[in-house]
Amino acid sequence: MKCLNCRTNSLYRARSGGKCPNCKKEFVFEPKRGDLFTDTAFEAALNRVSAKNSLSYHPRQLYFELARRRYTVLNKAISPRGAVVGGVFGGIFFGVIFSIFMSMLLKGFAFWLAEGLYVSFAVWGLFKLKRDTESPAIRLDWPVFLKHLRRWQTIQEPHMPLLLPEKAEQQKKVSKPVSGQEKNEDLFDYNVDRLILCDKPEMVDFLLANQFHLEQKCAILAFNGYPRAHFEEIKMMLQRNPNLMVYLIHNASTNGCRIAAELKRPEWFPQARIFDLGLYPRQAQKFLGLFEPANAPALPIQGLSAEEQTWLETWKLDLMALPPAALLKHLRNQISQHQQVIADAYARNDDADLGVDGFLILDSTEGGDDDFG
Q1: Residues of 179-217 as b/e, b for ≥16 C-beta within 10 angstroms?
Q2: 218 within 8 A of 194, measured Cβ to Cβ
Q3: Do 175 and 213 form a contact (C-beta atoms < 8 A)?
Q4: What one-character-per-residue DSSP string does 95-138 give?
Q5: Cis amide prior to 281 (ω within 30 degrees)
Q6: Where are the domains of the chain?
Q7: Over the chain, what is the mean pLDDT?
């Protein structure tokens, strides 16, 4: 394992005291003790989510990056087919041993009953093994991630200034949809034609912390009324704008996919143009290994296929599964492309061509998947 301080590689027996044999710096993690990551793997994940310390990021974005790496390395270590073949041979091997042992203890019906129970258990175990290895579910528990993060902060990096609070905070510094470091009241001096509406407060904090509101000259709010300070005033100001364009980003979940329909209600933006940028279940295959169990009933949603409805009954996919740099890049691209579509449509005097047919698509081959211990 490589030391982060002096970059010396060492064998386990040389670092058995938990310190680098060369510089004596303490290692944060030790896979031989059951830790899921090496120090270099954790550092590589941090570098990717922070774009080498240039972007603020949320703990869940780091969580998904580590989960992506873990899923990749587990799939490289053993394929679903390999797991089944190994399970079959293992079942036969232990079955022979079990039969010999049972023949010494039991006779007649009791012996065959024990054999039947073993076969039933082996078949059940084989199907479970196949299901688990083929499952697209996330393979990193949140409490386990938090344990690794706290240990990293204790030993390696006590202060992580770019790491956002785990819970969305109602502080002034994160309650400024347009004006950044200025007071919230200054928002009303701006002519804001665009709103980015998120389904989760944490996404609002992420975008504001990275100055996306200043870059795009837009307001950024969450569907649940976050940031609390001046939310209703900002909402009313936007409602009065006849040229308002709302760009919606949300999780691939039942609640997230239903928001677009809600925005046409009178209490929201019935006159605004709503452009839904996803995520949706049809993008989910690019994020295998990052699915989470659905936590809301799958209600009928207009525009979704039967396959997507079925997917929502079982799974959800968090927008934070996209690496931060990729998320910001695709948001920029989608908004920029759509603004060009609007400009072209107005030039042709064609109001029918103002939709957006783009979604956030992650290039899942974007490096950083092989630095595991």
Answers
A1: beeeebeebeeeebebbbbbbbbbbbbbbbbbebbeebe
A2: yes
A3: no
A4: HHHHHHHHHHH--HHHHHHHHHHHHHHHHHHHHHHHHHHH--B-
A5: no
A6: 36-163, 172-347
A7: 80
Q: Say what the pLDDT of residue 7 is.
A: 87
Q: Which residues pair with 2 in a beta bridge?
A: 9
Q: What is the DSSP string of 166-215?
A: SS----GGG--TTTTTS-GGGGGGS---EEEEESSHHHHHHHHHTTHHHH
Pairwise pLDDT comparison (366 vs 229), residue with the higher score: 229
Task: Give 133-152 as a 3 state SS string.
Answer: HHCCECCCCHHHHHHHHHHH
- HSE, side-chain direction, 13 A CA sphere, residue 10: 26
What is the C-alpha separation between 29 and 263, in angstroms, rounded? Answer: 47
Separation CA 359–CA 66 (nearest Å): 24
170 to 207, 228, 289: CA distances (angstroms): 15, 7, 33
Q: What is the pLDDT of residues 160-216, one digit of tens each?
A: 989 998 876 544 343 343 333 343 344 555 568 899 999 999 999 999 999 999 898
Residue 87 and residue 70: Cα distance in Å, rounded?
Answer: 22
In this prediction, residue 170 carries a pLDDT of 43
CATH for 172-347 is 3.40.1360
DSSP conformation letters of 28-60: S--GGGT-SS-HHHHHHHHHHHTTTTTS-B-HH
- Read off the pTM: 0.79
